[in-house]
Amino acid sequence: MPEAVEKIGNVSQSRYEQIVAELRDVVEQQTRGQFTIGGRALEIEPMRPRGGVVAADPQWTVAESLRRLAEDIGLKAGTVKTARWVASRWPKEHRQAGVSYTVHRILADID
Fold first, then answer.
1. Most buried of 42, 44, 66, 79 (most Cβ within 10 A)?
2. In the prediction, which pLDDT does 60 show?
């Protein structure tokens, strides 16, 4: 009697495991990318306390700087703003390898 091959969806178990490994790498690349965007946005506009120091040139508010950066790299301003905030809450030395950016973003809400 032939041994039944376990399938997940339309693929074999071994192909499924290959796909998972590949996609874990993709998620890791996306996580690094989001943190890179956030880090560069922090470089341009460091986090300040509410009511903090105003930029010397009133044209370049935090919002305007982040909007321009987002526009120049083809993202929404909210995406850049969020990446900046998450990067500020998770300095490089505290980020967890193998944990997605989304999980870091969710946990960033915890004081």
1. 66
2. 78
* Tens of pLDDT, residues 18-39: 999 999 999 999 999 999 999 9
For 37-73, how does the pLDDT look when each residue is reduced to its tens digit (9 = 90+)? 999 999 999 998 776 555 556 677 899 999 999 999 9
CA distance 104 to 88: 11
Contacts of 101 (CB under 8 A, 6+ apart): 30, 31, 34, 35, 86
Q: Which residue has the tokens 């874990």?
A: 24
**DSSP secondary structure of 39-96:** HHHHHHS----TT-PPPSSTT--HHHHHHHHHHHHT--HHHHHHHHHHHHHS-GGG--
User: Radius of gyration over alpha carbons of the chain, in Å?
Assistant: 20
